[in-house]
Amino acid sequence: MKKLLVILCLFFSLTASSQCISNQSFWINPVGPYQPGQVVTVNYTLGTFTQLNVNWIIAFQINLGAGWTNLQPIITPGNPGGSAGYWLWDLQNTYPSGLNFGPGWRFVNTGFNPDWGTASTGPFTMRFSATVDQTCTADNLSISMNVFGDCLTGGWWNGSCCNDPAFNIYNGVVQIVNPITSNINHY
Amino acid sequence: MNYKESKQVLLALFITMIMMATTIFTYGQTTINPDTVCINAVGEQYFVTNTPTSTYQWTITGGGGALQTGQGSNSITVDWGGVSGLYPNAVEVIESNAAGCPGAPVLIDVYVLDLSGNPIGPFCAGDPTTPLVGNPAGGTWTGTGVVANAFQPSTAGVGNYVLTYSMAGCNTTINVIVNNGPVTGPIQHY
After folding, report:
1. Is A14 within a domain?
2. Is residue A159, in this structure, part of any structural domain at all?
3. Residues of B whose CB is below 8 A from A69
4. HSE-up (13 A, CA, CB side) for residue B135
5. Which pLDDT score is estimated for B2?
6. pLDDT in tens, A92-149
7. Is A175 a member of any domain?
8. Which of B113, B142, B171 is the last residue of a domain?
9. Domain residues for A102?
10. Rounded mean pLDDT of B131-137?
11. Chain B partners of A187 at a C-beta cutoff of 8 Å?
């Protein structure tokens, strides 16, 4: 029984860890918490993308909570040693697998198949900004990043896809600020 | 108290004055609650400290008051009616910031003041001093022949006079007449 528990724990530990993604880092400026109207810049770096079963990296999806608006790209990820093509800033794209992508950057391969992604293993650094929406409710301001390989998007079918969890960048809610009015004066 | 101690006291006094001035500028409160306006006053200005990104919703209740200009801004003008009395929460403002979040309502009571003066006279030049009565009490009388809120016909002399009763920036007037006494001729003997 004890051995079985150890094996189960080991199994869940392995499945919860990243398969293709490693050395993720970020900075966010300014540091939260945030109030309506604030513009926040996020810089994210994926150090290494491991090509499991020739599974190439194809997209970076930015996941924003409902309290964000006006998402803007600032720095597009590079493509060191990668395939011919370019990173496209896209708000929405449906891949052949049915995966509904967006917003974020997705790689358009111009050499072979546009849905193959790039053979680059990184590093990939990108930057974007978002604005805290004008709201009077404590809306969700979470920010996370999903990295997709072309095995998930339907560009490549060769065994098990890596399906790494989203990388958490920020968790919080809008800080509501109610105005404080001075007393009424009369001339 | 030596020189150093005197210097410290002066410094403390200076800091206190600065703090008082800062408080006034920060909260801007110079109007005492209830505020007083004259009956049928027009163009009375009310304001709160402005935050450029905010909007302000004003409400005038009672006193025959009507908002004339400035709705949405931090400063409005109001015309008041002709019925005197105390009107609780007559002026209200709710500030909303750029996100549309409202602040707490800020209110002020308004007392619509209707001054009147009791008529006196007519007098003869030699009549005794007569107290002047204004309603409500507590105001100040001014004019020719007025001494300590009383009218002295002998000081004023013969003529027609306008006396003014003032309180809280409001005024009312009464007219007073001082007549000549009869001029009697010499006694004749037939």
Report:
1. no
2. yes
3. none
4. 8
5. 52
6. 999 999 999 999 999 999 997 889 999 999 999 999 999 999 999 999 999 999 999 9
7. no
8. B113
9. 19-170
10. 96
11. 44-47
Please provide residue A117's backbone torsions phi and psi, each rounded to the nearest 5 degrees: 80, -155
pTM above 0.90, yes or no: no
Bond preceding residue A123 cis, omega within 30 of 0: yes
Could you tell me the residue range of the domain that residue B60 belongs to? 32-113
Same domain, B96 and B39: yes
* Euclidean distance between CA atoms A100 and A26, whole angstroms: 25
Residue B8 has pLDDT above 60, yes or no: no
Domain count, chain A: 1
A2 confidence band (pLDDT: 50, 70, 90): very low
Query: Would A179 be classed as within a structural domain?
Result: no
Residue of B nearest to A135 (CA): B99
Chain A CB contacts of B35 below 8 Å = 184, 186
Whether residue A103 contacts residue A61, with contact meaning beta carbons closer than 8 Å, is answered with yes
Tell me: pLDDT of B9 over 80.
no
Is the pLDDT score of B12 beyond 50?
no
Query: Does the residue B141 lie in any domain?
Result: yes
Return d(Cα B49, Cα A183) in angstroms, integer: 8
Q: Check whether residue B86 and residue B153 sit in a common domain.
A: no
Could you give the CA distance from residue A38 to residue B62 in angstroms, rounded to a whole number? 42
| Residue A176 pLDDT exceeds 50 | yes
For residues B41 and B16, membership in a common domain is answered with no
Please judge whether B97 and A185 are an interchain contact, meaning their C-beta atoms are less than 8 angstroms apart: no
How far away is chain A from the Cα of B78, in angstroms, using its nearest Cα? 10
Residues B68 and B44 in one domain: yes
The total number of structural domains that make up chain B: 3
Could you tell me the CA-to-CA distances from B32 to A183, B58, B76 in Å, in that order?
10, 19, 18
> Considering only alpha carbons, which residue of chain B is nearest residue A134?
B99
Q: What is the pLDDT of residue B94?
A: 98
Flag whether B4 is in a domain: yes
Looking at residue A11, what is its pLDDT? 35
Express each pLDDT in B34-44 by its tens digit. Answer: 999 999 999 99
B94 with B125, same domain: the answer is no
Does the structure show a pLDDT above 80 at A4? no
End-to-end CA distance of chain A: 84
Residues of B with CB under 8 A from a CB of A: 26-31, 35, 37, 44-49, 51, 54, 56, 91, 93-104, 106-108
